[in-house]
């Protein structure tokens, strides 16, 4: 029996529109169908050392495939969710290197070797979660390999020089030597994937550029049910996230300082001292905060300021799930999430001046914005929509290969 992705991209996109209907039909029919051999599923993730967007995708994949085993290069069990701790997690030989859980990114040249040591010959379906190296695993010849790509590895492609400049001279020299080999490996291993799924149109374009492969876009899951619409008018502008140069928090700080607008900054990073040096009295820095504090600020802000470029950007959807608008730079995933003046505004240039103009335009119509309409828009990116869309696509691919196609869905929780 051969597992091979043969469906053309337009057909796959058309199928996704029917995924929720088919999912309900599968649930209704599951009780009347007899069980057959269980599909063996492997989930491959680059590393499990925190709980960010990629790890939330892994959680949803585990809910869809409760029988799946997880393979990852390095795992820090103290920093992953209780749900993931219950899964069967296999780590690579990198796990045994002292300090690996903290300095895993410095082991990039070893990662291809570590990935290829994983033995996946018993698995019928392999789902790789790619941002660091994950898709390069070696599967059985007749297995189906679907890669959910958060982004091709930025540190060897479009952000290579940014990452390289941040290293000491020894690291820069080593990266200059190893990067060409890693790029060759990365492109070569794209042929090991039967179907790419991109988390945004922006990432789909990068997959096309670097791998010369087409992909289906399924936006990542956002836990929209964790957020509630705030009451009353927003009290302050908000910036939240890592305080690193490429996210451009300086634009938000400068704009609110010049306009005399109150700005709350939640997050930490190497730019914090610099940002404090350019901030005026209307800017408040809270540092890292637990989720409940972040959630409270999302529901009370006037708008989220989002001046960076993200492949998708979960935070804007979370603030929209709280009924608050987003003022975002017109690039990356924000083009797909901040898609209407009813939910926010996008500014064309990544400058303080452009953000100031956008803030002025927003404040003219601020009282007319409907928080419930903003939340309704955010629900299009919920975890349930993600599961139904991806399940429909996977079932479609498996259905070309005989009677194994229904097995996983007969066992999938409703």
TrEMBL record:
The keyword Transferase applies. It comes from the Bacteria. The lineage of its organism: Bacteria, Pseudomonadati, Pseudomonadota, Alphaproteobacteria, Hyphomicrobiales. Residues 231-366 form the Glycosyl transferase family domain. Residues 52-225 form the Glycosyltransferase subfamily 4-like N-terminal domain. Pfam families: Glyco_transf_4, Glycos_transf_1. Keywords: Transferase. This is Glycosyltransferase family 4 protein. GO terms for molecular function: glycosyltransferase activity. It comes from Rhizobium vallis.
């Amino acid at each position: 029996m051969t597992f091979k992705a043969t469906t053309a991209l337009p057909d796959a996109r058309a199928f996704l529109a029917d995924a929720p209907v088919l999912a309900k039909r599968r649930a209704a029919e599951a009780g009347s169908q007899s069980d057959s051999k269980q599909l063996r599923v492997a989930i491959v993730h680059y590393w499990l050392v925190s709980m960010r967007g990629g790890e939330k995708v892994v959680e949803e994949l585990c809910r869809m495939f409760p029988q799946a085993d997880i393979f990852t290069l390095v795992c820090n069990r103290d920093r992953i969710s209780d749900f993931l701790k219950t899964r069967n997690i296999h780590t690579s030989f990198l796990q045994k290197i002292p300090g690996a859980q903290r300095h895993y990114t410095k082991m990039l040249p070893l990662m291809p070797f570590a990935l290829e040591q994983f033995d996946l010959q018993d698995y019928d379906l392999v789902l790789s979660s790619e941002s660091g190296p994950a898709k390069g695993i070696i599967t059985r010849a007749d297995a189906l390999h679907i890669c959910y790509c958060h982004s091709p590895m930025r540190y060897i492609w479009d952000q290579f020089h940014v990452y390289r400049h941040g290293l000491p001279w020894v690291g820069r020299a080593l990266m200059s030597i190893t990067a060409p080999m890693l790029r060759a490996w990365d492109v070569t291993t794209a042929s090991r994937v039967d179907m790419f799924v991109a988390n945004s149109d922006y990432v789909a374009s990068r997959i096309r550029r670097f791998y010369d492969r087409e992909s289906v876009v399924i936006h990542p899951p956002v836990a929209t049910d964790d957020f509630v619409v705030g009451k009353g008018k927003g009290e302050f502008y908000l910036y939240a996230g890592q305080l690193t140069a490429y996210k451009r928090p300086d634009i938000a700080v400068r704009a609110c300082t010049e306009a005399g607008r109150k700005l709350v900054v939640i997050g930490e990073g190497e730019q914090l001292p610099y940002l404090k040096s350019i901030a005026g009295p209307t800017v408040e820095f809270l540092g890292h905060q637990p989720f409940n504090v972040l959630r409270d600020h999302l529901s009370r802000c006037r708008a989220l300021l989002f001046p960076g470029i993200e492949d998708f950007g979960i935070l804007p959807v979370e603030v929209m799930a709280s009924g608050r608008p987003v003022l975002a730079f017109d690039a990356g995933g924000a083009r797909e999430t901040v898609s209407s003046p009813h939910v926010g505004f996008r500014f064309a240039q990544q400058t303080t001046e452009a953000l100031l103009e956008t803030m002025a335009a927003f404040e003219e119509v601020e009282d007319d914005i409907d928080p419930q309409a903003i939340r309704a828009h955010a629900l299009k990116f919920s975890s349930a929509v993600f599961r139904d869309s991806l399940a429909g696509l996977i079932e479609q691919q498996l259905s070309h290969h005989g009677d194994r196609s229904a097995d996983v869905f007969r066992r999938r929780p409703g």
